Amino acid sequence: MNRTELDRLLARRKLLKASLAGVCAHGAGALGLPLVFGHAAQAMAAAPGRGNRILVVMELSGGNDGLNTLVPYADDAYYRHRPTIGIKPAKLRKIDEHYGFSGGMAGFERLYKDGKLALVHGCGYEQPSFSHFTSMAYWHTAAPNSGGQYGWVGALADAIEPGGTPNFLVNIDETQSLAVRSRGHVPVVFDDPEKFVRKGFHQERPVFDQIAVAGDAASPTQRYLMDVARSAQDASALVRQAWARYKTPVDYGIFPVDLKKVAALIDAGMPTQLYYVAYRHNAFDTHVHQSDVHARQLTYVSDAVLGFMQDLERIGRADDVMLLIFSEFGRRVPENTSLGTDHGTANNMYLVGKPVKGGHYGTPVSLTRLDEGDNLIHTCDFRRVYATAIEGWMGYPRSEALLGGKFEPFPVFA
User: Fold this and answer.
1) Which pLDDT belongs to residue 215?
2) For 13, left (φ over 0), alpha (ψ -120 to 50), or beta?
3) For residue range 115-148, what is the model confidence (pLDDT) as tens digits?
4) Distance from first CA to last CA of the chain, Å, rounded?
């Protein structure tokens, strides 16, 4: 498939979206199927000014140690709690008179000093869970201590694009995240772009292929199902082709955290406006001999994020993209006897991009006033950061409908 064929596929998706608006609503409803094709005009009306803005969410799974990521080196309490694993000032990348990034985070240092990285302090929630699975579910659904059926990114897709435009929501991972589960969208989920095809048993392949190229349908429902099959085939073809033709001179470092794949799809003109990626497999669960492993992982993340931002500049999309970075919880303040850290509570979140007004946001946590478990007391409900992304960036004015309450966005954008 060459560039002309890729453009033809993209044009075909737009044509399908326009021509099928409303055709199969009754059939889809009767079958309980999500509406895959929708009204672009309705989406733009629901989110005025959203335009071509893209939100990328990055999950650092395992509970990243925020205190050894953004180190409060000017606070003596930090070194009293961490006499061995505390990072000494001379080894930090200082960004001001109080804080410095872990020594390998040259990318974050540069982005911060360029005014493109916002630090949000003390993010967490009341009655925190120390379970990876439970806490991550709360963050995925924006519903602390209750959970929810749909993810907050999936709910955002439903809100700003209620018609379910194909390829609007992409999750790059081995399996689909709860964060992107949606009432009206079918997320595009893949790991290796070169091997991305619609899954099914070998015996089912001829049926899939036949449906995807079938001619006239006997009923609106049949036509809907045929178009869903074609949509799945088109999505996999678009992803494979986008990755095959993507070339970049930008260095993402050793571990790009799937951000290269996001850049490839953006460069190819995919209509996706919501992306979800993760540093997977509880990589940040650093209970034992934390220092070297954690510093290395932070270097990977920092290099990948800087590379992604530089690549966006190269392809002319830097003004359109914002990256949100989070972890399901922080770590306990004191180091443990295994020279690591145990599950904790509050953590920093990061908003990165050319449109971001960099700096510190929120109230820094106290290292001397801890809870009874030697954990940080959170100063910011993490949903304020979600509200910032939803309202301030994606332009949807009713974030409370998605977050279970009203949370004031931070003034992060011009």
Assistant:
1) 56
2) alpha
3) 999 999 999 999 999 999 999 999 999 999 998 9
4) 41
Strands (E), 132-248: 169-172, 188-190
- 71 forms bridges with which residues in the sheet? 100
Alpha helix positions (H), 204-349: 205-212, 220-245, 259-268, 290-314
Cα separation, 276 vs 323, in Å, equals 10
Q: Which amino acid is at 65?
A: D
- Provide the CATH number for the domain around residue 180: 3.40.720
pLDDT digits 0-9 by tens, 253-277 = 999 999 999 999 999 999 999 999 9
Give the whole-angstrom CA distance, residue 180 versus residue 206: 30
Distance CA 147, CA 350 (A): 23
User: 243 φ, ψ to 5°?
Assistant: -70, -40
Give one word for 35, left, alpha or beta, with left for phi > 0 and alpha for psi -120 to 50. beta
pTM (two decimals)? 0.85
Q: Are 54 and 272 in contact (CB under 8 A)?
A: yes
Whether 240 maps to a domain, the answer reads no
Pull the structure tokens for residue 100.
Answer: 């410095």
Domain that holds residue 75: 31-199+250-403
